[in-house]
Amino acid sequence: MRTTMQSQHRFLMTDLNRTTWELSQLNNQISSGRQMSKISDNPGNLVSALTLRSNISEIKQYKENLTYGYNLVSGSESSLTQIKEQVMRAKLLNVQAINGALSTENLRSMGEEVRHLFEQSVILANTQVNGKYLFGGYRTTGYNDIEPTPFMAGFVDGYRLTGSTPAALSGELTTGQISTGTDLAAGDLLINGEDMGIVDLTTAAPSDYNLNMGGAFRLADAINTNSSTTTATVTTLYAGLVAQDEAPVDLNPTAVSFDLNNIPVSVNIADGRLAADVAQDVVDAINLVSEQTGVQAVRGDGTNGGIANSVVLSNMRSGDDNNIVIANMNPPGPNLTGLVDVDQVADDQHNTGTVSMSSEATAIDITTSAAGVDDSILNLVGLDGGGIGFADEIGDGVLVYGYQLADQDLILNGQSIAAPVDDGVSTIFADTSAASKAAAINLESGVTGVTAVVTPASFRTNGVVTAGNIGPGDLVINGVDIFPATTTISARDDTNALVRAINTFSSTTGINATRNTDGNIMLSAVDGRNMHIVTSANGERISHLNGGSPAVPQSKVYYGSVQLKSDRVFSIETTPTASFEQGLAALGMSGGATNTGEAGDLPADGLITVDSIIVQEGNVRYTGDRSNDISIKVGQRSTLKVSKNGQDVLMDINAFSTLKRFEDFLKGQNFTEVVGNAAATDVTATLGSGDTGLPRHDELVAGDFTLTVMDHEQYPPVETKIRIPVDPAIDTPETIAQKINGVAGITATWNSSGYMEIESTDAARYTFVLESDSSNFLKSAGVSFSDIQTYSLGQSLAEMNQLAEDLTRQISDFGARANRIETQNEIFINLELSTTENLSEKQDTDIIEALMKLKAKEVAYEAALSASAKVMQLSLVNFL
Question: What is the pLDDT at residue 39?
């Protein structure tokens, strides 16, 4: 093929252009230092280079994270180190307080210094780095005027709401007069879901005298037959014959005497007294001894169980079906009184026409066939009109007796709470006790975040112990007859007979007793069980345990209360009825802000949002994250923990409470336990005998000491102050321990070595002080105020040592975290260098090599130009 001039020219230009482009590329590489300026230069290398650049960017970010994390770690370590310095200063003061002969005023001044150490520790715990609280965990926002910092001194930790203590309840639900209007049909009356069936209420004997004794007896029998949860009794009644006129024969009155329930009764009937007056004279004589017999009397009028002008007797306590016994009638009856010797049982013709119901395991839940319509069925059994049981509406046809928390009555944070069940310890209404309700709530605490805490039932009598003989049936506590044999009780129980008898059965009843110097008895339950106290008229007259005035037989149930607690704001809901917030009322939390203290709580709306922060001196509230530590990202899926949340690092090691307890001990307050320093060899010997083995027994005198107990779960803290009497002629070391042990929140025993031990049942909740000892007992037993203070300061030193160890461990942990950060940082430095080298290989220009290539290309370019010029010149000549 012939090569034309045009072809030669095209070939030459192509070659020159390529060489020019290559020169340009080399110049660009030399000037930019990069091998590539666009993807097409080297697609494979450029993708690799971009990946390496991204890796280097991530590594730099991780290094910045590590720098931030190191600042947090070093800040945390510094803060904890300074807190430890506060603790070490407190520890030094503690050693001085124990070993030095310091006055009370010196110790109080030292307590003020410890208070400042406590406050400074809280400030250090709130240290920030770059606006981030070191121990706040993941919480970085949300701090406000209400919760300004993670650690807040002087506030209660978490949120809580305390229910009021339910009013004491009669141990029996007693009906009004049983109606004769119509019989009960099947399905008309259900108790705890069980049908009482057909009950004949209309058949009444003429001798009923307007009291439907037969209907009441048959209803009680139906309940006992058909109910597995409820027992029923009628109240014994006896009516004599019509009294007779006393003829005015002479001026001597007619004397009549008899024994009523083994108690002598006598009455002198004046000449000329008419039958009505005779009956009234007998009634008055019987009622004079009612406190001993438990029987009351009225004059019959034809409508109250007895014929007109007869003497009608009935047991004073509703539901008491014990026999009424009249014996040794003189002159023999029937006489003017119309009474005869009788041993009257409660039957279908001898009762008051009412029925009393009681239940051990459950509340008494009555449902009728007219439920939701009216109280017509309840009217037949004398339970209509509302207000009889718990949250009882008028006209709703249902009634609950006992502070029942029904299934789904209560909703906590959106979670329904199941109905409480038998608590296993209460002897009456066991599914309504504080213990049963707390257990039901705590079953769901993992979901709701809300826990329930019980305040055991406790009360002090208003009346003082009266002298007298007390015997079988006079005092029954939680089903136990406290006096199986007749016992003499002294005024104010100075001989401790009443307190000792109650405490003898404490392991069975779960109830402890004590008394103060004035003779008032205090009872307290050991847990959240109900306290059921049954007193006869005589038992009530002597003990005054049920508050009867005048003394009458009583059966009462005393309840503990429940407090709800949560780390966060929580809600309590119930479905209100027309007049009641039932679920809230069952916990003593109904009635709106006036009762609950929660500003946003409106009465009758069925809702409480617990969001108030309770002020309480000496506490520290933690508002930060309780679960998560601060972490930094050191990889796409890898993190490194650099700080701890305040719950773990400070609250759980009792950093603040240890300092606060030390301050309290220095100031002589809020003690939690003591072991005496004087041993007794015989705790059953009287104190004045000299046989107890206690020192200084010759200094003991009749007097008392003051025990003050503080319940810190209540707000404000509830103080119980009681003067414990000491009589060396009667008291033993054991009886004094029993008296102390009878106060709620405190236990007192003599250990196997003979030393007295006193401690709170819950150190975080109950604290105590023993002081003002006019008897010298505390000094003799080695548990005087100064003894307790010295013992507690020793406790505090041990706690301070433990806290110092815990802080050292925490500080070491942060040191280890700092080491991990440094190690990780070194890894990233090396990784950054190697990655940068790899990137350089992919994208950077080898300048020497490029210059050599450039020089070669320039030479080649000049040669090509020269050759091209010659070729072009030759071709032109040839062309011409």
Answer: 47
Parallel, antiparallel, or unpaired for β 458-460 and 468-470? unpaired
One-letter amino acid for residue 278 of the chain: V
Contact 201, 188 (CB under 8 A): no
| Strand 132-133 versus strand 128-129 pairing type | antiparallel
3-state secondary structure of 71: helix
Within 13 Å, how many C-alpha atoms sit on residue 328's CB side? 10
The DSSP letter of residue 203 is -
Task: Yes or no: say if 299 and 310 are a contact pair by the CB < 8 Å rule.
Answer: yes
Q: List C-alpha distances in Å: 764 to 215, 721, 794.
A: 56, 19, 18
- d(CA 676, CA 256) in angstroms, rounded, equals 63
Which helix or strand (DSSP H or E) is residue 19 part of? helix 5-32
d(CA 306, CA 240): 7
Q: Where are the alpha helices (DSSP H) in 404-495?
A: 434-443, 445-448
For residues 814 and 70, is the Cβ–Cβ distance under 8 A?
no
> Exposed, middle or buried, 527 (CB in 10 Å: 0-12/13-18/19+)?
middle
Q: Give burial (CB, 10 Å; 0-12/13-18/19+) of 6.
A: exposed
- The helix (H) or strand (E) run that includes residue 63 is helix 43-99
Which residues have CB under 8 Å from 823's CB, separation 6+? none
Burial label, 507 (beta-carbon count in 10 A; 0-12, 13-18, 19+):
exposed
Q: Cα–Cα distance between 448 and 454 in angstroms, integer? A: 18
d(CA 880, CA 868): 18
Torsion (CA) 165, 169, 173, 175 in degrees, nearest 10? -110
Tell me the C-alpha distance between 583 and 440, whole Å: 13
Whole-Å CA distances, 808 to 1, 44, 571, 650: 97, 55, 40, 12
Tokens of 840: 């350089």
Angle between helices 43-99 and 655-666 (to 10 degrees): 10
Tokens of 184: 């009960």
The bridge status of strand 673-675 relative to strand 703-711 is unpaired
Q: Which two tokens stand for residue 710?
A: 């503080």
Long-range CB pairs of 40-44 (<8 Å, 24+ gap) are none
> How far is residue 547's CA from residue 555's CA, in Å, rounded to a whole number?
11
Condensed to tens digits (0 to 9), the pLDDT of residues 437-464 reads 999 999 999 999 999 999 999 999 999 9
User: d(Cα 707, Cα 709) in Å, to the nearest integer?
Assistant: 7
Decide if 73 contacts 642 (C-beta within 8 A).
yes
pLDDT of residue 11 exceeding 90, the answer is: no
CA-to-CA distance for 313 and 350, rounded, in angstroms? 10
Strands (E), 611-662: 615-622, 630-633, 639-643
Predicted confidence (pLDDT) per residue in 87-142, tens digit: 999 999 999 999 877 899 999 999 999 999 999 999 999 999 988 899 998 887 77
Q: What are the helix (H) ranges across 391-469?
A: 434-443, 445-448
Give first-to-last CA distance, the chain, whole Å.
22
